[in-house]
Write a structure and sequence with these properties.
The protein is of the alpha/beta class. It has 10 helices and 12 strands. The strands form 3 sheets. It has a 6-stranded mixed β-sheet, with helices on both faces. The relative contact order is 0.16.
């Protein structure tokens, strides 16, 4: 079984340290929910794992299937079985979606995919994420709505069939129907292909649908606790205040020494009503 192990990972951007010793492990077949207040390093972790050049790893290790991820280029990480769905997918004018998908699939194969097989796979994936098949003839994400871009990310995941898929707020900007579609695809990919998932979200609804087997909470660039899905329910109900009381970990940003108390789902709404803002 393949596993992704992050050991004492320190990451900085433009000289500012964001991750300050992250330790985390995700295995094939698991769904791990990554929670934490905004701006505390969750997206940075995913970007660093995938090799975004803006993020400099200054210390630590990332090991995937026994191999040193930090020594790999971005395309090598993808070919090894890692996948990242972006929080804000870019529009790429001039690149036809179908051509992009075919090129990506061929890069992951020893022999080029046959045309009939490619279009059959593409048609099935489009149906699964409820995107019109003719959209594959348009430029990649160009003119797509926010929801269409997110479903297009899931479509890519289906076609590439990674071992570990990292989803950065894949549910943001989606309506109820789209969240259901995306969730069904995640569950199917996990059950049928044993794909492991590392999922960032601020909304309990997505986690209710995909049912993570583990949850981790990140505060100030560190994983402060790892547990089962009951952590998600507790944060949805109580927010992050209990972390300060029970774990003796401040949820205030270290460099600012001040941040609003935030939570996922219903708790965030309660906080707004309580403060009258």
């Amino acid at each position: 079984m393949k596993s992704l192990k992050i050991e004492n990972l320190h990451v900085e951007i433009e000289g500012k340290e964001i991750l300050k010793g992250v330790n985390l492990e995700i295995n094939e077949g698991e769904i791990l929910a990554l929670l934490g207040p905004n701006g505390h390093g969750k997206s940075t972790l995913l970007a660093a794992i995938m090799g975004n050049p803006r993020y400099k790893v200054t210390q630590g290790k990332i090991i995937f299937d026994g191999k040193d991820v930090l020594s790999m280029s971005v395309d090598e990480r993808s070919k090894a079985g890692l996948f990242l769905a972006f929080q804000n997918p870019s529009e790429i004018p001039g690149v036809v979606s179908a051509d992009f998908f075919k090129g990506a699939m061929n890069a992951h194969r020893e022999n080029k995919i046959k045309l009939f097989e490619f279009y059959r796979s593409l048609e099935e994936a489009c149906k699964e994420v409820n995107l019109p098949f003719d959209m594959v003839n348009r430029n990649l994400n160009d003119g797509f709505s926010g929801g269409e871009k997110k479903r297009n990310e899931i479509l890519q995941m289906i076609l590439l069939n990674p071992s570990i898929a990292m989803l950065d707020e894949i549910d943001s900007g989606l309506d109820v129907d789209a969240i259901n579609i995306v969730s069904q695809s995640i569950v199917k990919q996990n059950r049928e292909n044993n794909t492991g998932f590392l999922v960032i979200s601020h909304y309990a609804r997505l986690f209710d649908l995909i049912k993570p087997s583990k949850a981790a909470i990140m505060v100030n660039g560190r994983i402060v606790t790892v547990g089962d899905s009951s952590l998600i329910a507790r944060i949805d109900k109580e927010g992050y205040e209990w972390i300060e009381k029970e774990l003796k970990v401040s949820i205030k940003k270290e460099e600012e020494q001040s941040m609003n108390k935030v939570s996922i789902g219903v708790c965030a709404t309660k906080e707004v009503l309580k403060n009258g803002k």
